[in-house]
């Protein structure tokens, strides 16, 4: 907001420009008796108007008073002070030497200037009035008007440590292509009244200052960086028309976590070394019985064109409670529900916590968040899956993708997703994907012609990359620094460049 005074200086600068064609900020400050800072402020405001003025920066050496110099500028030189302290009849030399500070210097200088003379023991005025040039010079230098002081004198004052040389930036202002002496106060806001009255047409508006640091607001609640990133990923899925799945059940049965996904009961991932089983309550209350029977049959003897795994499927094993090891357990529940309610095409996503009995290290914790996308429709193919994945990763700024054949018990085909990392100059794994197997979908009651494409990745991996964290313990747990949370930018996702393995 421009004060009236600030406006005045701007006007003065414009008039001076019209008259002289050029204004040098420091000289202008001296001639107009303004501080240099105020003149520079006015120049900056005029500069922001567009092409009214041209501004060139000049680095200068200039002079500044030392503390002693400022003292003399305010109170006068020693010799002048001595002259002014003397009565017309003078004082004795001993008296002056005993009572006047810096008397030797003051006496010497005053004599040299012929202001005082000796008469026997006494010092008496030799003139009726004096002009204190030292004070005048120092005052001029203090106000930036050093040009009025001869170089020889400046050299002498420098030797006496009354002034010192300093660096200074001054601005040379000339007329711009849109030069005018009548600048209007720029409006900072377009108001309802301006629009209604049509006044806005005649106004000029202050340009947005995108370099402004903004105001530090009262600090209130902040999202943890991981949760912020989660909300950004959530936004991407929502933009792509996906619906979020309910993921609020960390405790899951082995049935939904593994069996429903056609993961055999002997599979190593089901081992207690890889999965946390729940001791109390150790068993799930119930699983839909007719569906369980179909799952049992598919595992033990096959169906839907498959011969299954050919083993004795155990209800006991399926009823065990565990901490879900992936969010695909939720996808299984949702697809089953969808089939019961009458299938229609869907796009689902989830972002939530999963648990694995891992050896903890710099990049692995026993719990992390998974991002999962699931699309169910008639006759989807792997081509659609790859397109979906491309679209999703493009939204987070990843364009170079490659797919590598992989194996998951519940998808066929399965593909690991790799992205080219510009920094590391190599392909790094960023996710896993596949088409859900008929052995998983058909027992649920999903219609024949329907296929389901799905992909997943961890939330922590991109988070570590975006926040530049190498040790996951700095992102989760008591070692998280408050600054990370408080100074976290509002939007992080555009910074995501993958650097490593996803799981
Ligand atoms: N569930 C897989 C994992 O835990 C990810 C995945 C999801 C793979 C969907 C294929 C399809 O890594």
TrEMBL record:
<comment type="similarity">
    <text>Belongs to the class-II aminoacyl-tRNA synthetase family. Phe-tRNA synthetase alpha subunit type 2 subfamily.</text>
</comment>
<keyword id="KW-0547">Nucleotide-binding</keyword>
<keyword id="KW-0030">Aminoacyl-tRNA synthetase</keyword>
<keyword id="KW-0067">ATP-binding</keyword>
<dbReference type="Pfam" id="PF01409">
    <property type="entry name" value="tRNA-synt_2d"/>
</dbReference>
<dbReference type="GO" id="GO:0046872">
    <property type="term" value="F:metal ion binding"/>
</dbReference>
<dbReference type="InterPro" id="IPR004529">
    <property type="entry name" value="Phe-tRNA-synth_IIc_asu"/>
</dbReference>
<dbReference type="GO" id="GO:0009328">
    <property type="term" value="C:phenylalanine-tRNA ligase complex"/>
</dbReference>
<dbReference type="InterPro" id="IPR040725">
    <property type="entry name" value="PheRS_DBD3"/>
</dbReference>
<dbReference type="InterPro" id="IPR040724">
    <property type="entry name" value="PheRS_DBD1"/>
</dbReference>
<keyword id="KW-0963">Cytoplasm</keyword>
<dbReference type="Pfam" id="PF18552">
    <property type="entry name" value="PheRS_DBD1"/>
</dbReference>
<dbReference type="GO" id="GO:0004826">
    <property type="term" value="F:phenylalanine-tRNA ligase activity"/>
</dbReference>
<dbReference type="GO" id="GO:0006432">
    <property type="term" value="P:phenylalanyl-tRNA aminoacylation"/>
</dbReference>
<protein>
    <recommendedName>
        <fullName>phenylalanine--tRNA ligase</fullName>
        <ecNumber>6.1.1.20</ecNumber>
    </recommendedName>
</protein>
<dbReference type="Pfam" id="PF18554">
    <property type="entry name" value="PheRS_DBD2"/>
</dbReference>
<feature type="domain" description="Aminoacyl-transfer RNA synthetases class-II family profile">
    <location>
        <begin position="229"/>
        <end position="478"/>
    </location>
</feature>
<dbReference type="GO" id="GO:0005829">
    <property type="term" value="C:cytosol"/>
</dbReference>
<keyword id="KW-0436">Ligase</keyword>
<dbReference type="InterPro" id="IPR040586">
    <property type="entry name" value="PheRS_DBD2"/>
</dbReference>
<keyword id="KW-0648">Protein biosynthesis</keyword>
<comment type="subunit">
    <text>Tetramer of two alpha and two beta subunits.</text>
</comment>
<dbReference type="InterPro" id="IPR006195">
    <property type="entry name" value="aa-tRNA-synth_II"/>
</dbReference>
<dbReference type="InterPro" id="IPR045864">
    <property type="entry name" value="aa-tRNA-synth_II/BPL/LPL"/>
</dbReference>
<keyword id="KW-0479">Metal-binding</keyword>
<keyword id="KW-0460">Magnesium</keyword>
<dbReference type="GO" id="GO:0005524">
    <property type="term" value="F:ATP binding"/>
</dbReference>
<dbReference type="GO" id="GO:0000049">
    <property type="term" value="F:tRNA binding"/>
</dbReference>
<dbReference type="InterPro" id="IPR002319">
    <property type="entry name" value="Phenylalanyl-tRNA_Synthase"/>
</dbReference>
<dbReference type="Pfam" id="PF18553">
    <property type="entry name" value="PheRS_DBD3"/>
</dbReference>
